[in-house]
Amino acid sequence: MDAAFTEEQHEIRRTLRELLQKRCGPDEVKAAARTAEGYDPALWRQLAQQLGLPGLALPTAYGGVGCGPTELALACEETGRVLLPSPLLPTTVLVAPLALALGTERQRAKLLPALAAGELTGALAVPGGRLATALALSGRNDGDWAGGGRAGGIQARRCAPEPGGAAGEWRLYGEAVQVVGGHSADVLLVAAHTGGYARSRTLLFVVPGDAPGLVRIRQTAMDETRPLARVQLRDVSGGLLGEEEGAGAVVTALARVGAGAAAALAAEAVGAADAALGRTVEYVKAREQFGRPIASFQAVQHRLADLYVRVQAARSAAYYAAWAVGAPAQDAEPGAPGLALAHALETLRAVAGEAIQLHGGIGFTWEHDAHLAFKRAACDELLLGPVHRLRAHAAETAGLFGAGARAAVPA
Predict the structure, then answer these.
(1) Could you tell me if 195 and 148 are in contact, meaning their C-beta atoms sit under 8 angstroms apart?
(2) Which of 168, 171, 175, 167 is nearest to 157 (CA)?
(3) In this structure, is residue 157 part of a structural domain?
(4) pLDDT band at 289 (very low <50, low <70, confident <90, very high)
(5) What family is this (predicted)?
(6) Do 38 and 11 belong together in one domain?
């Protein structure tokens, strides 16, 4: 592994940071999160047109920039630094790579250029709020998490073909909650169970955002910068992503995309933690007690030093995870992305909590900017964790504890 970044990678980080610093102060972030879309569409278009952010990790053949997981992680670190509300996670990190891995050539040609250009936004709808399971981050994703049997989760059935016609269309029914960006996405990838008991399998379906029978409700969330939605499918028509015989490929692709998502989100959490720590250091230099800045107190210095070490360790783990995702299979270390995500989320939670403490009385007011990082830490862990499950599954994936590891994983 070469730990040095290229000039191009430094330029991606530098350009994105300069743009976001101008457009994404805390007040702008809060205002964008409270819009109907949950983000600033004008800023998203600017990021797409000037930097190619939505297609950063997509091949140039489909309108992307042609970069890899490392560049995407660097971009996520910068968006995490300002807690940018955007479709980056659902569109670029989840939907686009799934369409690339599973879609037919016709589906790729239709979806990927529009996603890369920022003309379409996407969301991944997983039933039961089990996104972490579907992405193989907190457990194996080869079970019935999409809804086993004849009821529950999201079900898909194939209609009988018309006489003399082609195979019938797919109809979907069920509900998914905690769908990131699902309330405003232009296209949804819906994970659904099909085949009943005899041929039980999970497939992905493409559903337009304006499909008849599709009901989307934005859920109230503690973290406004990560909007979630309840998606109801009431006999909705959906197009199968890829081939029907590729059910095994769906599980594999979700796990691979989950590793990339873990690396990107770990970098995002590191950016948020680093920014929160920087703001706290500046504050303790200015706040005085007993006639001197509280930054001069040894106890405060020790607390900040401990946080700095944790942030740097989390950053190293996130960078390694991004490298591991893009490395050849024989060189990659299994479990590294999940472990990096666990460490980064835990670090963000610790830094955000200390930031509130060190800001004193004003830090405990709910409206203070320090709470943006605290809410992101809490909600991301609820969405993708908990941390102990991430670590346990990463250890199992890496084979650290042998055959008995899975039985020892806490519930």
Answers:
(1) no
(2) 171
(3) yes
(4) confident
(5) Belongs to the acyl-CoA dehydrogenase family.
(6) yes
